[in-house]
Amino acid sequence: MTYRFKTDLKWSDVTPKSAFLNRRSFMASAGAAALGSIAGPALARIMTVPSQYSTDAAPNTLEEITTYNNYYEFGTGKDEPARYAKALVTDPWSVTIDGLVDNPGTFSLDDLVSGMTIEERIYRFRCVEAWSMVIPWNGFQLSALLDKAGVQSGAKYVSFETVVQPENMIGVQRGVLDFPYREGLRLDEAMNPLTILATGVYNEPLANQSGAPIRLVVPWKYGFKSIKSIVRITLTDTQPYTTWKAINQREYGFYSNVNPNVDHPRWSQASERRIGAGLFAGREDTLMFNGYGDEVASLYADMDLLENY
Ligand SMILES: Nc1nc2c(c(=O)[nH]1)N[C@H]1C(S)=C(S)[C@@H](COP(=O)(O)O)O[C@H]1N2
Ligand SMILES: [Mo]
Q: Phi, psi (5° rounding) for residue 224?
């Protein structure tokens, strides 16, 4: 079953509507994660239309999803983004699309999605690093946006950049990384239907700490590839700069595919701790490509994944 939108899409069509009209309600319902309180036939329909790629695994609560985060612009502690990301200014927002595209420009969020055809709304994806969660994202396939941008034949990679608001970002003031945070994908990875731009969680707009107003989600790669609060998307012919590889090339590769057979130099990557499973729950075995091998293993058929970690 698909959920096909009209082609004069507005940003409010790709963000959860009731909450979009009344952003204050987000904070009210966020604490309770009270899904039942979100009324309306359209949303009811969206709720029942998961992506064909969604997992059946039980999702984490909104509370868990928004209180245990990595967003170094707001500090390196897992609890710091929830405390400090309120300062992020997300309205107005624009995204620049440039490089090897036919239709470059700087777009408001409405302009960004106008004319796109979007088929799926809920992506209940496992995400994993040393810990894991299952998150029901709202969003759309990155490929829909890249198709609209008109990717030129010479393009081989996509580069992404996060906003920098020094006055609002305590981690930028502390200089904990070389900001802006940057990430990249090979073009075929970017076009894969599992690669989405998320605009919400649990039919609520993204919390700032989750990467509002728009962030990448790449479920077969380690969490750090999923860059938050995107302001620039650039199509390139060479492998782009990526923040973690630049920090430590030996520890973080460009691909960063979830791979239980390749340990991080300082820790095993064979298992993960499921957030919310309780103190005494055992660790779970981490699956190759985070369990999405059927969808993505073919992308790496010719590659040595021990070399290309
Ligand atoms: N801009 C930006 N994006 C980022 C990060 C960051 O520090 N800054 N952290 C990454 C890391 S290390 C992880 S694990 C995920 C965490 O996403 P979550 O907080 O939504 O679970 O965001 C990624 N995206
Ligand atoms: Mo991470």
A: -70, -15
